[in-house]
Specification:
Shape: globular
Order of helices and strands: EEHHEEEHEHEHEEH
GO molecular function: kinase activity
Helix content: 25-40%
CATH topology of the largest domain: Rossmann fold
Oligomer: single chain
CATH class of the largest domain: Alpha Beta
Organism: Cladocopium goreaui
Structural class: alpha/beta
Protein name: Casein kinase II subunit beta (CK II beta)
Keywords: Kinase, Transferase
Number of strands: 9
């Protein structure tokens, strides 16, 4: 078929074609088109499908491309148990979130009031297991759960089920009644409670370490900022500073893999470059 293509009444091109007129040709014949014609490649449209499949237009998967599975973090052999490394473990706020959990204060310590809902976080337990897997450090429970034989046994059972053994617990000491935040006549009750709690836990950790001189390096996993007990006006002369050894955990998140990696690097670095623990 021979076609004349005119623009504004002027003959522009003679086209010989065996196909039906395209929309562009029709528009040019009517004088409504623009010149020149677009190349055929630019005017092509993606063919429509009637399948309704959202992924119909996507390329087929490449059978030659292999997907590499993520490495199992426990695939390598675990480190041997090392009694020179210790992890002081708090539970509430570390292995268990404290969001919306009512608490009760007993002898300067805080315990969960709702004992019917005290499940431990699988992610936090996995992070703790990974930390021990990398370092071989032993666990010492410093949590208030050690005050209750049933709570302590429950924690030990959960840890033992994942291959983590509890080496011991810190002693339970009395809080110092002479510590206040504010004034003695008008103290800030919550801040005073936290200060006494932190100072008492620092003394308890120190007391355990004094009985286990083989421990060279240690960390404390805790959601309580123990560094508030490090001030010279508060800390006893024979109590260790907590700041250099504290891994502070967000109580609304719990222990994470990031905590585990950072803690393992710290413990292993100290193991390679041993130094005497400073008490000042």
């Amino acid at each position: 078929m021979l076609m004349e293509i005119r623009v504004a009444g002027v003959l522009r091109m003679l086209v010989r074609s065996f196909r039906k007129q395209s929309l562009q040709s029709q528009s040019l014949l009517s004088g409504a088109g623009t010149w020149p014609l677009k190349p055929l490649e630019e005017s092509k449209k993606r063919p429509e499908t009637d399948s309704g499949d959202l992924y119909a237009g996507m390329p087929a998967p490449d059978p030659e491309k292999k997907v590499t599975p993520s490495k199992d973090i426990f695939a390598d052999p675990p480190a041997k148990e090392d009694l020179s490394l210790a992890i002081f473990l708090d539970i509430d706020g570390v292995l268990r979130k404290l969001e919306s959990v009512p608490m009760i204060t007993v002898n300067g310590g805080t315990l969960p009031l709702d004992l019917g809902n005290r499940a431990l976080l699988p992610e936090a337990l996995r992070a703790l297991k990974y930390l021990i897997h990398l370092t071989g450090a032993s666990l010492v429970v410093s949590s208030e759960w050690r005050r209750s034989s049933s709570l302590l046994e429950e924690a030990q059972t959960a840890l033992r089920a994942l291959g983590m053994r509890v080496r011991g617990v810190t002693p339970v000491l009395r809080p110092r009644e002479d510590l206040f935040v504010g004034t003695k006549l008008d103290p800030d009750k919550q801040a005073t409670l936290r200060l006494r709690w932190a100072e008492r836990r620092a003394r308890e950790i120190t007391a355990w370490l004094q009985e286990h001189r083989e421990v060279r390096h240690w960390i404390a996993l805790d959601d309580l900022d123990l560094t508030i007990a490090d001030e010279a006006a508060i800390r006893s002369a024979d109590t260790l500073k907590m700041g250099p050894f504290l891994v502070l955990v967000d109580p609304e998140v719990g222990l994470t893999m990031s905590h585990a990696r950072q803690s393992s690097e710290w413990l292993l670095a100290k193991k390679e470059r041993p130094r005497k623990m400073a008490r000042t």
